Amino acid sequence: MDPRWTALLDAARAAHEATPELRAFCPFPTELREQPGDPRPDPLSVTLQEAPGATTSPWQGFRDAASAAGPIARWRDTYRHTAIGEELHRHFGCFELLGQDAPFGAKDMRGFLVYQRPGYHYPPHHHPAEELYLVIAGEAEFHLDGHAPRRLGPGESVFHPSGVPHALTTHESPVLTWVLWRGEMETRPVFSPAFSDQQASPR
Ligand code: FE
């Protein structure tokens, strides 16, 4: 196994142990099959190395391990086929560390690194899986249908319930996040029509 994967796994495990929200979401998997697979390169791996986003000190090792694994990662192309896919994937990228087909095979959860460049709005989307986002570096505004947007930085997390539309907006900073899935994990995300009217009224 490439030591960059092992280092990233160790960093993810350390973050899990240190973060009550992650521990409450799911246990960190213990039985992990090593299945490195072929990389699918993405120019964002270079962007991630050049501009990974600022951290607070506990998150620096995780950020640097994620950035180091970028060039050997299998970057996903979830939205490439959609009308905004090319534009989206210029700004937004994601690769898996833990999961059925990930470098470390796990059955009951999935774990992804998600990176988004500054000044981009990843539109509302939804999926059956329950999801927990933890910000590793930089910051972003997290939108969840029915709730006021929240601006989160390193070490802060947000939970997205099954099927509820959510979106992500970066401003002057990029954001690097660690994302966990549980529940029904086979169905890919799809764009949501729009947020309900609740989103429009600030509270
Ligand atoms: Fe999501």
Residue-averaged pLDDT: 93
**Can you identify the CATH superfamily?**
Jelly Rolls
Q: What is the class in the CATH system?
A: Mainly Beta
The end-to-end span amounts to 49 Å
CATH architecture name: Sandwich
Structural class: alpha+beta
What is the CATH topology assignment?
Answer: Jelly Rolls
Q: How much helix is in the residues?
A: 10-25%
> Poorly predicted ranges (pLDDT <50, ≥5 residues)?
197-203
Instruction: Please provide the ordered H/E string of secondary-structure elements.
Output: HHEHHHEEEEEEEEEEE
**Quick one: biggest sheet?**
7 strands, mixed
Radius of gyration: 16 Å
Q: What percent of residues are in strands? A: 25-35%
**Taking strands numbered 1, 2, ... along the chain, how are they ordered across the largest sheet?**
1-3-2-4-11-6-9
Give the distinct bound molecules: fe (iii) ion
DSSP summary, beta strand count = 12
Q: What is the count of structural domains? A: 1
Instruction: Please count the helical segments.
Output: 5
Query: What is the general shape?
Result: globular
Short description:
This protein is about 25% helix and about 30% strand. The chain has about 200 residues and is an alpha+beta fold.
Task: Report on the architecture of this protein.
- This protein is α+β, with helices and mostly antiparallel strands.
- It has a single domain, classed as Jelly Rolls (Sandwich), CATH 2.60.120.10.
- 23% of the residues lie in helices and 30% in strands.
- The chain has 5 helices and 12 strands.
- The protein has helices at residues 3-18, 20-25, 44-50, 60-69, 85-91; strands at residues 33-34, 92-99, 104-105, 110-116, 121-126, 130-138, 140-144, 150-152, 157-160, 166-169, 175-182, 190-191.
- The strands form 2 sheets. A 7-stranded mixed beta sheet has the order 1-3-2-4-11-6-9.
- The longest helix is centred in the first third of the chain and has 16 residues, at 3-18.
- The protein is globular and about 45 Å long.
- Mean pLDDT is 93; it is low at 197-203.
- Bound molecules: fe (iii) ion.
- Fe (iii) ion binds at residues 127, 131, 160, 166, 189.
- Fe (iii) ion binds next to loops.
